[in-house]
Backbone:
């Protein structure tokens, strides 16, 4: 078996498939920051943190996971819509229903996913569609393929979540200058190029304005104004949050220690409306529910 790919700052929405002969074919959609830990919880039962719907019905297999969301709110909105395709306003116009005797529950969930990846706000996110079990792999139909900036891949994955370090050196922080607007900025709003030899330092809003196309609110990609490197907006945000090593304001979380930053235990019912109300400019999906 291949070595798992390590993904930093992990937010994922997964699809489970039941292989218990009594319940074979049933599926479950959920959210996690640690997929390996989460599948163990589902197969151990509610006493270990698994969901009531999966308890005592296993074993379950996590056959695929979609990750690359900017935060938990974005991932949880995606989870809710995938669970309820006829309740989210993003998909209601499609009137998605399982085709009797021609489509299994699993095939229907994949068809719903293929539609979700092609509508706003999700079609603008730098998502990764990862198949964890090759025996369940299904090709997306040509007319329903995800956008080209999304990644289709397979193989195991390991989450490496990050913990921010408080920067007490405010004097140094306030001396950083945005090279696009010449105003001062701090580390929480600073974007830098993925090219280590590039000198770009900019406000997140300044670079977003440079990358945005008319009528859009969230960039997808663009070229660095200093070194002309083609950049994915999602990669820039992930670097700002401390991914890709060498980030001074973040440290990796010890998966064997404190679970505060990546545990699934504190996730309340993500189908509650209060869990998806957020005004973040990056999400732009207040009409989903």
Residues:
């Amino acid at each position: 078996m291949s070595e798992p790919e390590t993904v930093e700052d992990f937010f994922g929405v997964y699809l489970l498939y039941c292989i218990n002969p009594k319940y074979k074919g049933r599926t479950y959609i959920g959210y996690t920051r640690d997929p390996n830990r989460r599948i163990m919880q589902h197969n151990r039962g509610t006493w270990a943190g698994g969901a009531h719907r999966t308890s005592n019905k296993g074993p379950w297999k996590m056959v695929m996971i979609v990750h690359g969301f900017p935060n938990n709110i974005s991932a949880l909105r995606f989870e809710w819509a995938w669970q309820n395709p006829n309740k989210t306003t993003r998909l209601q116009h499609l009137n998605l229903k399982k085709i009797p005797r021609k489509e299994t529950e699993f095939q229907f969930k994949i068809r719903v996913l293929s539609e979700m990846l092609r509508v706003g706000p999700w079609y603008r996110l730098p998502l990764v569609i990862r198949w964890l079990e090759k025996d369940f792999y299904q090709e997306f139909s040509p007319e329903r393929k995800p956008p080209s900036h999304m990644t289709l891949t397979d193989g195991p994955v390991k989450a490496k979540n990050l913990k921010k370090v408080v920067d007490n050196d405010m004097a140094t922080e306030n001396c950083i200058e945005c090279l696009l607007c010449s105003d001062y900025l701090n580390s929480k709003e600073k974007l830098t190029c993925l090219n280590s030899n590039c000198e770009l330092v900019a406000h997140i809003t300044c670079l977003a304005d440079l990358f945005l196309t008319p009528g859009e609110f969230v960039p997808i990609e663009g070229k660095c104004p200093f070194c002309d490197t083609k950049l994915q907006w999602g990669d820039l945000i992930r670097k700002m949050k401390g991914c890709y090593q060498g980030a001074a304001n973040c440290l990796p979380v010890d998966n064997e220690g404190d679970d505060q930053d990546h545990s699934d235990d504190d996730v309340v019912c993500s189908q509650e409306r209060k869990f998806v109300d957020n005004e973040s400019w990056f999400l732009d999906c207040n009409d989903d529910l």
